Amino acid sequence: MNLLARWIKAIYNFLVGDMRILIGTLVALVLVALCAYVLPGGTGLLFFGLLAITLTLALRHEITP
Amino acid sequence: MAWVVFFSAFAASFVECVEAFTIVLVVGVTINWRSALAGTAAALLILAALVGIFGVALVQWVPLDTLRLVVGAILILFGLKWLKKAILRYAGLKALHDEEAIYEHEQAEIRALGGQLPERINRFGLVLALKSVLLEGLEVAFIVITFGVSAAHTEAAKSAGLTSAALGALAAVLLVIIIGALAHAPLRQVPENTLKFAVGLMLTTFGTFWAGEGLGVVWWGADAAIIGLGLAYLALAWLLITWLRGYARHSAALPAKPSTGR
């Protein structure tokens, strides 16, 4: 179990290393997937906007005391 | 040859190669070259096996749209992580990634272990070289497979894309080795943060585009949207760096306050 947890942690650190980026990206993917059915043409801008917010929040967290 | 894929894989792989090369150089100089080269060779063998198994499996069995969504999401995660660190470094809120300082630090750590460092294979040196080359090499393999496969528009183009990406990575490895051999130093001339910033931008841009395609997004201007996305991320990064630099200056100007217990 301990070995499994270490493996999961190692893979998480290798791929992401930041929970805010992971959650923000997953939320963006889900929202874009839902919106793409309704308005495929305008969803690209929404996708960029959501990822921009994700990056901004991740940076804001770094400077929050 | 898919040149966009070639140069993208080249740039991304170059950064990883510089990092791996620095550690191998430290082990070679400080412990011995036999351990450094044995560790490197073992890591390369493991990497070749992994890429051989998973690379072929991806190309043959996974549908293109699913692959684009998955690798696009992974590239976004990778890219945003790199971009965040590079922006913090540009803003002066994080120390610059200095290969020379890493070289000195690793050397001091190895020397601090004390004792004799014989010419025969040293287990610590071998593991250190193997771990570094395997970790950085895995990132290169990841970049090669994702770029190679996702850039293809048809099933047949996947193999050509993989070849272009692999050649790009190979060119990066060779260039780092040549620069290292000529410079006899841990590549201190390479402006690593600039390179990492550019690669972070590139990974995020391609990741957004491919994940969007996988989800059914119709991009304005089709493939040309990649350029627009790249410029948009560049503008965003510039705004964030400006904001964080202002914050860093403001923090430095403030007098130290006692803790309020928050």
Structure description:
The complex is a heterodimer of chains A (65) and B (262). Chain A has three helices and no strands. With 65 residues, chain A is mainly alpha-helical. Chain A has one domain (18-63). In chain A, α2 runs antiparallel to α3. In chain A, 28% of the residues are buried. The model of chain A has no long low-confidence stretch (mean pLDDT 85). Chain B is mainly α and 262 residues long. Helices cover 79% and strands 0% of the residues of chain B. Chain B has helices at residues 3-30, 33-61, 64-90, 99-112, 123-150, 157-183, 192-215, 225-253. Classes of the chains: A mainly alpha (65), B mainly alpha (262). The A-B interface holds A 14-18, 21-22, 25, 29, 32-33, 36-37, 40-41, 43-44, 47-48, 51-52, 54-56, 58-59, 62-63, 65 and B 69, 73-74, 76-78, 80-81, 83-84, 87-88, 93, 135, 138-139, 204, 208, 211-212, 215-220, 225, 229, 232-233, 236, 240, 244, 247, 262.
Summary, kept brief:
The complex is a heterodimer of chains A (65) and B (262). With 65 residues, chain A is mainly alpha-helical.
